[in-house]
Please model this.
Amino acid sequence: MDRDLIFVSITSSEFVLLGSSVLIKAVTAEQAIILISLLALVVSVATVVISIRKDERNNRAVIRQQMNALVLEMTAVVVEAHTMTAMPVTTAQERDRRTFTGMLVVQKAFPLSMQAVSLINQAPEIMTASDFMMAGDVSRVASNWSIANQCYEIAVRRTRYSFSLYKVSCRRGYAKILSEQGRHDEARELYREALGVQESTHDIYRHMNGYTYATWYISELQDEGDRKLANYLYLEAEKLYNEIINPNIRRDSLQLLEGAKAQLEGLMS
Model:
């Protein structure tokens, strides 16, 4: 039986027993009627409370299921947007294709962003930091900046004491969003915070911090930031990647970094 239901039932029984003992001592029938009415009211209120709490739990369960399904949809659109931005743009035809694809992705992202807001507002207490991050990411794809900012601000607060990889991912994601809005000082503060979370020499953390440097490097160049700082960030990312012991992780990380650099230089040339 539900814990709340047991608690309320016990409380109601205690009231009934108490009322019964008082009824025995009642001097007049009028007093007895009043006490019986009070007891009936208590039982009625307890029944309503039980019903409301059960409905709330059922409603939260439904909202949680809907959010789980929505997260999958949002993830697919965010991945599609990321793939789209990685398209090579060397000809007018490729540029037009990328523009058209981008429009389609935005059309998918915007309603998902609004659905996420609706579910979050109905039951914010059951949402996880990753829910807010994904809602922020899909809102970013839709250029719905206000919602993206609010979602990531909540995610940053909720991951204050989280596992380091999760904490870094959240701050790095929000920094990227702020940079795209030209809010470079705020973005840099979050990038620095992400880099200060874990400075271990383990391969996982070398890759994690190297990726943060690489993302920050891309932000500075892509979003018209500080090019001198960008060069420094590239070298820091390259240095950490070269220190990775696992040869496969080291090779793949360096290739991605060099590929990003080549693509950015192509766009700016």
